Amino acid sequence: MNLKLLSFAVVFFCLPVTTLFANDFQLPEKLPPHPRIYLTEKRMGEIKALMKTDPFMEQQVKALQSKAARLLVDFKKGGQLNEDKERTSANRYGLLRYQFPDGMRLLGVSWMCIVRVTTFAFVYRLTGEQEYADAAISEMLNVCRFPDWHPVHFLDTAEMAAGVALGYDWLYNVIPVAKRTEIRKALIKHGLNPGNDFYENKRHWAASASNWNEVCNNGMIQAVLAIADEEREAAGKTFKYALESMPLGLSVYAPEGTYPEGGNYWNYGTLASCMTIAALQDVVGSDLGFLNTPGFKTTGDFFMGIIRPDFWYFNYSDCPDEALPNPAMFYLSRVYNRPDYAAWLCDFVKTKNYYQIWNENSREGDESFRDYDRWAVLRAVWYNPEAVGADFTSTPLAKHFSGKQDLAVMRTAWKDREAAFAALKAGSNRSGHCHLDIGTFVYDVHGYRWAVDLGRDMASYRVGGNPWRLFRLINRGHNTFLISDSLQNRYASCQIIKFESNGKDFTGRAVADISDAYAGQVKSAIRTATLKKDGTLIIEDQIEGAVDKVRWAMITPAGIQINGKNAILTQGDKKVIVTLQSGEITQFEQLPTTPTFDYENPNEGYTMLAAFATPNKGKINIKVTLKP
Ligand SMILES: [Zn+2]
Question: N or C: which end of the chain has fewer CB within 10 A?
């Protein structure tokens, strides 16, 4: 295989034609010279050339340089600080320490390692400034001398392995020989060996379909491809296992790329899989058929689809509302010849000025926000200038994404930040990180979200026991029905049964059969969401076989003024008029969103616009119109 064929410019135009042959694949005898994963000498040359002619690349690289400079100042400060500095500070200054920033996991340290090593290595390769190479190498050696990479929580191990492996490859030519050996041995001892234990015993992520599988296999593959020529036996063993395990993680994309665990975990898992496949293309000369995975080809449509015009997620499952400019979209754009993905990501980065994300960018004050963008270097690596002029506004305005989390999204425009956006979710109550939220919807217009999903509650990560007591995780805390304060059927699986787009006066209409979510509570429940071209959202419900009162609800951050079956919602100087038509309901009510337990998110600033429907011979018909 001529390795030049692997250059991104060529890959961009080559749709994958292979079928999966990973199971029989052996590591080639001879591998390309270092640096061989992503940041080859050739790609580095392209980046340097593009910086001079392409404004996006110039901005992206400048942002990485200023980030590196800022990180280096903190890194050098280490020696001047007391040991008893509080934990996060201790990991901000000086060499990283073996500690669990959140009390449970080494993951935060692994993420910092990725940020430092990849950013320092990138800037060294760009500028030749030795202090960046020195800092990256000392950080790599430092973590290699840790007692372990916390394999009990294997994400910590896998992420650390990926960061160290890429640093090893990118800086190979300037790492002294003895130190190279030390890093390789640590990648085996702390990374591959504990990984093999999971593979051989078919434990946890190695034998299950979730973001964990994607992230952990990525860490193992990066380590393998970085050291395989010098550590052939150890690398070959893990390589075989990882290739066997990967199809499980990738199986979640079938049939259309909808991600079962929501947008935030799409970020995590999909970027990891893109990294794995891209590294295989660079080093062994083939995607081994993984790009033919059902649904992977269109998963970029899903990501674009669930993000509203000013870049918040439809945040079903455990997901914050702020979206991230995932470099995976540049990669997917290249390999599937989808310039609209890249054009959309450029628009996202430019609009939000997210060439580099810092904590202060986070609306939610999320400490990890910066670290979520730890692979920012890959935006420079995978950026394709040929996509810049591409038009993403002709991507369909409304779409049904079938899959385990069956859902529909609709918008009135792609680029107008004030455009209306709505989403309706059917789907499953049995996916990882899911909430009991079948039938829920969100609605945005004028740059505000009027009907919200409250998103994840970090308490569900910390508190053991029954998650179906937390307000944000159950139907009581979602824009769907609550009947006699009962939970939805925890095993329910529901579909969008009819979907139309681009009608005469509507951009999208989705009909969800959510009966299974209320099995035993009603006979049938059908919810229809229609987003009209003028931005009006209509939610229509038909319930049969109801015995008890049914609560209709919509959680909002807006001010609410109720007048019987009408309500005026206000945010800033914008209003949405809500009108209710139903023979079974007499009026709207305003309910608090206060949770039961003090360890839950207090949901400050939110109110529930609700209405109680008394069935008439078992039937309830509701039509709610939200008009901007
Ligand atoms: Zn939710």
Answer: N
Tell me the two tokens of residue 159: 């992420």
Between the CA of 473 and the centroid of ligand 1 the distance, in Å, is 6
Q: Is the pLDDT of residue 88 over 60?
A: no
Instruction: Give the CA-trace dihedral at 340, 345, 350, 354, to 10 degrees.
Output: 180
Does the pTM exceed 0.70?
A: yes
In this predicted model, what pLDDT tens digit does every residue of 163-204 receive, in sequence order? 999 999 999 999 999 999 999 999 999 999 999 999 999 999
How far apart are alpha carbons 4 and 251 in whole angstroms? 31
pLDDT in tens, 278-327: 999 999 999 999 999 999 999 999 999 999 998 999 999 999 999 999 99
Task: Return the H-helix or E-strand segment holding 41.
Answer: helix 41-53
Q: What are phi and psi of 476, to 5 degrees?
A: -60, -30
Name the amino acid, one letter, at 579. Answer: T
Q: Give the number of other Cβ atoms within 10 Å of residue 255's Cβ.
A: 11
- The answer, yes or no, to whether residue 3 has pLDDT greater than 50, is no
- CA-to-CA separations, 119 to 57, 111, 112, 358, 567, in angstroms, rounded: 15, 12, 11, 14, 51
Question: How many angstroms does the Cα of residue 454 sit away from the middle of ligand 1?
Answer: 6
Average pLDDT of the residues in 458-472 = 84
Q: What is the DSSP letter of 13?
A: H
Q: How far apart are CA 54 and CA 367, in angstroms?
A: 32
Average pLDDT over residues 270-275: 98
284 Cα: distance to centroid of ligand 1 (angstroms): 41
Q: What is the CA(1)–ligand 1 centre distance, in A?
A: 48
DSSP letter (8 states) at residue 616: B
* Residues in Cβ contact with 125 at an 8 Å cutoff, skipping those fewer than 6 apart: 35, 39, 44, 170, 171
The yes-or-no verdict on residue 389 having pLDDT over 90 is: no
Distance CA 389, CA 428 (A): 38
Encode pLDDT of 515-539 as tens digits.
Answer: 999 999 999 999 999 999 999 999 9
Distances (CA, A) of 188 to 173, 328, 347: 20, 27, 41
CA–CA distance, 372 with 162 (Å, rounded to integer): 15
Q: Are 109 and 94 in contact (CB under 8 A)?
A: no
Per-residue pLDDT at 464 exceeds 50: yes
Supply φ then ψ for residue 110, to 5 degrees. Answer: -60, -40
Contacts of 617 (CB under 8 A, 6+ apart): none
What is the set of domains in the chain, with CATH numbers? 3-387 (1.50.10.100), 398-627 (2.70.98.70)
Q: Calculate how far, in angstroms, residue 308's C-alpha sits from the geometric centre of ligand 1.
A: 16
Average pLDDT, the chain: 92
* Eight-state DSSP code of residue 342: H
pLDDT in tens, 107-140: 999 999 999 999 999 999 999 999 999 999 999 9
d(CA 517, CA 439): 8
The whole-angstrom separation of Cα 501 and Cα 225 is 45
Which token pair is 585? 């309901």
Q: Ligand 1 centre from 286 Cα, in Å? A: 39
CA of 450 to the centre of ligand 1 (A): 15
Q: Residue 602 corresponds to which tokens in the numbers above?
A: 């207090």
Distance 329 CA to ligand 1 centre (A): 25
